[in-house]
Amino acid sequence: xxxxxxxTVFDPTEQAGTAAKTTETAKPAASKRTSVIVGMGLxxxxxxxxxxxxxxxxxxxxxxxxxxxxxIVGGAIYGIWGGAWLGFTFGMTVLLSGDAAAFLTxxxxxxxxxxxxxxxxxxxxxxxxxxxxxxxNRFVAVVAAGVAxxxxxxxxxxxxxxxxxxxxxxxxxxxxxxxxxxxAGLIGLNFPVELMVNLALSTVTVTIIGIVKKSMSExx
Length: 220
Description:
The chain is mainly alpha-helical. It has a single domain (15-219), classed as Arp2/3 complex 21 kDa subunit ARPC3 (Orthogonal Bundle). It is 81% helix and 0% strand. The chain has helices at 12-54, 67-97, 101-104, 108-133, 138-164, 166-173, 178-187, 190-200, 202-219. The longest helix has 43 residues, at 12-54.
């Protein structure tokens, strides 16, 4: 009977070619990860610096949040998790800078939860809104994200006031309607100023996002 078994011949050139292809495939992935890490590191630093600078600019008892624009840019480029991380960074900077000291003396737990949640929520919401609209119109997506960020940031702050600080805020209101005091006394001009800043910088934001995304696309 004939021996029908086939002998497999080891081909070192074939194995080397496969290894080379695997290495070539891995390089873009590693490069992309490095690019994201570097980019997020830069955006994190920008958020911290902007928030520290804005802590000296006050409309009412609290400072405005100039870092929201940077959070919107980061969320648009790096997605929802990127926006959430930058929002968390913003919240931590607020806590560590002493900008929330008035509330920390009342309840540290409630202050930390409120500040971090409003930062994370604002960043994630801005990134999500941008992602949903970007393919239709990038400028509209930026404008919508610029509205979503301060709305969520302020909305969660108001919710936190009712959950953790209502009794204290009622005392601060000194007989005035609590809702009126929250909007006029606590929020003041902060929300409209933050909103106007985001909208005023929309064109610049669109340009920055376009340049960064094009650069990232060319590297892939």
